[in-house]
Amino acid sequence: MLFRSVMQGLSLFFLSVVQASAIDSSATAALPAAVIEQDALIAETQAGPHQGGGITTAYPFFNGAEGFDMTFRKRALHKGAAIGSHFQERDEIYFILSGTGEFSLNGVSQTVTAGTAILTRAGNTHGLRQTGEVDLVLIIAYGLHEQP
After folding, report:
1. Is 107 exposed, middle or buried (0-12, 13-18, 19+ CB in 10 A)?
2. What is the pTM of this model?
3. What is the average pLDDT score of the chain?
4. Pairing mode of beta strands 70-77, 55-61
């Protein structure tokens, strides 16, 4: 009798999991399976963000993708350009693809080069300046939702 009760309980549990999965997948079924974008087609010339100065090229990937809850951007900081020092309200990742720069976090600076990954946590102040002979190119990623 106990075995039968346990089996019925497990059956109900698995049925509810399957139903929940069906609901979740139907909610995303309307979204495309993939969005593919080419950087050359979305490039935008912009001033250095956060009053950083200089000229940059931004590549705002998936900006119009429905249901995409994050920012994923490539940015090229051209000679002398910068992302100005600013307060970080959410976690943010920088990944340096090429070039050399000076990254400052809460007033302390260090040199960054290709292959450097930086996780800036919410509540800190940071900025990045191009310092080398070639463009400083990086990927920037952060969630759009507020953190607790």
Report:
1. exposed
2. 0.77
3. 84
4. antiparallel
